[in-house]
Amino acid sequence: MAALLARLVNPVVWRIPGHGARKLFGFSLAEHGSMLDLASAAHLAPDEGRRALYLRHMLDEARHAKMFALRSGELRLDQGKQSLGFPVADNEDLFVRLGELRFLAFVHRGEKRGRQQFEAYREWFGQRGDRKTRALFDAIIRDEVRHETYTYELLVQLAGGRERASAEIRAAGLWEKWRIWRRLGRFLAEKLYFLVMLLVYLVSGPFVLLASRLRPAAKGWVDHQASHVAEPPAAPAAPASLEWTGA
Ligand SMILES: [Fe+2]
Ligand SMILES: [Fe+2]
């Protein structure tokens, strides 16, 4: 599905000026996010062997993040623009939140999707004659295939069989959809809040203007004491307190 979608949109999106560099920067951000998740796993996994596997995986993702960021910077420089630099992803603590089994299923899904997507991009850049970007995807795909394979094998081992592993992968897929839905909801809520506040601001404008015309702000000296007296004294007396409110 990911590869099919990538192949469908490739002819359009990669031709948009500046899109290639931004897209590669986005990949770098995603790789950096994976690196942070794997760093937690390498630190927290209860077994020494698994910690070593996660550590190696983490180092691969760190390298991928760097490779994508560098290529993105090169493409930006070719267009006479400044590099976008190196991205910093949020740490979602997925190893802790999901538990090792669901985390492995989630990572396996991501590796498979990423590998399929990258294969489509490798093909695209190969056809376009961009050997450098093609070689970048080629090198990364080799690592992603290894990640996809070991996460599945480890998942089967920890789950106690392929059936339970498949159930975990399906559950991780549902959780991922829920996460996308929540993110989309948060994004839309922010946009809606902005629109509502803009509407309130625009609608209240004429009322504020009308109120200021009907009841202009008092200027000059105001006698606070006189305003509390029901009937004015027969003879004017010196005010007890005076306040200057502006000219
Ligand atoms: Fe990667
Ligand atoms: Fe990977």
Q: Can you offer a commentary on this structure?
A:
The chain has 247 residues and is mainly α. 77% of the residues lie in helices and 2% in strands. It has helices spanning 2-13, 19-44, 48-78, 94-128, 131-159, 162-214, 224-227, and strands at 221-223, 242-244. The protein has a two-stranded antiparallel sheet. Helix 4 (94-128) packs antiparallel against helix 5 and helix 4 (94-128) crosses helix 6 (162-214). The longest helix is centred in the last third of the chain and has 53 residues, at 162-214. The site of one fe (ii) ion has 6 residues, from helix 2, helix 3 and helix 5.
Bound ligands: fe (ii) ion
Q: What value does the Rg take, in angstroms?
A: 31 Å
Strand order of the largest sheet: 1-2
Number of strands: 2
Our estimate of the beta-strand percent is under 5%
Strand count, sense and barrel status of the largest sheet are: 2 strands, antiparallel
Q: Helical stretch count? A: 7
Order of helices and strands: HHHHHHEHE
Measured as a percent range, the helix fraction is over 70%
From the spread of the alpha carbons, the general shape counts as extended
Please tell me the overall pLDDT: 87
SSE class:
mainly alpha
Q: How many angstroms separate the termini?
A: 71 Å
Low-pLDDT runs: none
